[in-house]
Amino acid sequence: MKTIEFNPNGEALKVSFKFSGFLLASYTYTLWEAESNHKVVYEKGNNQNPQDDTYQLPMPLKANDGRLIQLRTEFIAQDPSNVKNYTISAEVYQGSNLLGSAKDEGGNTGSAQSSLIFIKMETL
Amino acid sequence: MKKIIITICLLATATTLFAQSKEDTTLIKNFRLDFAVPDMPAFKMLGTNPSNILRPSSPQALSLMISEIGGGDGFVLPKSFAAELAPYILMKSGSLTLEDYDKNSQLYNLRLSLGTSRNPENSTTTDVSIGFRTTLIDKGDLKNDQQYRRHIYKLLADKGELKDKYQAEYLTNNNLNIQDVAQSEVKLTSMNEYINKKIEDYEANFDYRLDTLKQGFKERNWNKQKLDVALAMLGSSPDSLTENIEFNKFSLWSTYGAPVGTNGQILLGFNYNYFTNDSIEYGITSLTSRFYGGSNSYKGFGEIQVKRNENLKSNFFYLALGGEINIKDGIWANISAGLERNWTDNNSYFVSHFDLRFTIPEDIKLF
Question: Any CB–CB contact under 8 A between B101 and chain A?
């Protein structure tokens, strides 16, 4: 599990999901409360429009300390004969600065595939 | 004809061997649709067929065509050969996003073909051709079908939500919180096994629905609206050295395909050929209409073509019948016979044509 540190007094936090490898992908994004099974945020989306695959983390920023980002993706490669690999990533930004990212890479099979990414948020 | 049959049998056997143990059609191994392999500009330039229509079709990463099969007594060799590949697909590969494709689908469809043919009258002269083609409209391509995408997104979203539901169930049943699971490989594996076992039935149903969706699309869409444009040039070399090639023929095609009912397709084609050498230059213009009837795997066609040859100051009329058969996954045979008439000289000729077309079979991945 990836841990990403942020400045609790800095700019807003956001997480952005990216899907490459010519995929059709549907995902669920969950922001889990620290040390709890309470869902602070639960969103559903797909990669049809990449512009809406970015989410701002709740304010105040300090409340995100210890929270866990979960990205669950179900996907199918559109042209596995030609495009053989996929990469799914979750990138965390503070303002416009990339703080870090977690990614899942693998081979396209042409049948339904799954990916699960976790990122733990911690204050500096 | 005997040699042709032997070749088809050998190729069909080879494909069967490659594809063995991959006959389970209930699982989708691959989403490429095995529509007919298209004509290639470079192959057309070799002049192996009197028809000047360039049939549009969906792009393939790599396809091959051979024609005029003949040769020694012991083995069958093609006299004409061409290969087509898609450079953008090969260049972008794993970094390609859905957005990239949607913005650059014409680049994705750009194909480069190379062809070569030996002169049947001597063993030294070689013709070499280079062609470019792109598809401007392709409503038969699964990758462009928004309705298909909506179906898939819905299926995938349902599956993701179901997994989240069983994840919550696992956490509750085992009195764990998600952070404990996320930082422990053992616990994470255990949770995923629980979820996957729970959705086994859904998974099987999901693959079945996907398979049905693909097959239905394939049968319904072989004849959908298409528009291809292509350019090619032909050079001849008195020997096998590439530096001696002189390009003396240039060609432009535009072909529009539209559905006729559910089982028919009409093609309207334009072709202009420009010939030049030290002593002469002239053009040949063709207008062709071809009608296909049948299904994706077996089609018959009728064709009418009018052609104007400025060098001969002659008008030609070509009438042909033919068929296209999917012999095996990735192997197509195309056969036609017809009559070409020179209206100016009042001469008529019978002409026939046969070629084999290959692409990567749906259940084989080379890359």
Answer: yes
- Residue A116 touches chain B, beta carbons under 8 Å: yes
What amino acid is encoded at B181 in this protein? V
ipTM entry? 0.95
Helix (H, G, I), strand (E, B) or coil at A111: coil
In this complex, the residue of A20, A79, A116 whose CB is nearest that of residue B143 is: A79
| CB B273 within 8 Å of CB B253 | no
CA distance B91 to chain A (A): 10
Kindly provide the b/e burial profile for residues B56-91, where b requires at least 16 CB atoms within 10 angstroms of the residue's own CB. Answer: bbbbbbbbbbbbbbeeeeeeeebbbbbbbebebbee
At residue B117, the 3 state secondary structure works out as: strand
Give the separation between CA B248 and CA B173, rounded to whole angstroms: 77
CA dihedral B195, B198, B201, B204 (to 10 degrees): 20
Q: Phi first, then psi: give them for residue B211, nearest 5 degrees.
A: -60, -45
CA of B240 to nearest chain A CA: how many angstroms apart? 33
In chain B, what residues touch A111 (CB-CB under 8 Å)?
A: 27-29, 207, 210
Q: Is the four-CA dihedral B44, B50, B56, B62 of positive or negative sign?
A: negative
In tens digits, chain B (367 residues) has pLDDT values of 444 444 444 444 343 333 333 333 333 333 334 445 567 888 788 777 778 888 876 677 677 777 755 544 444 556 777 888 888 887 887 788 999 999 988 888 899 998 888 766 666 677 888 999 998 888 877 788 888 899 889 989 999 999 999 999 999 999 999 999 999 999 999 999 999 888 887 777 777 777 777 777 767 777 788 899 999 999 887 766 666 778 889 999 999 999 888 778 899 999 999 998 888 899 999 999 999 888 777 889 999 999 999 999 999 999 999 998 888 777 888 889 999 999 888 899 898 888 887 766 555 544 4
CA distances from A86 to A16, A55, B59, B203, B294 (A): 17, 22, 21, 21, 38
- CA A22/CA A36 separation, integer angstroms: 35
Give the gap in angstroms from C-alpha A95 to the nearest C-alpha of chain B: 24
Least CA distance to B102: which residue of chain A? A48
Strand duo B314-328 + B331-342: pairing: antiparallel
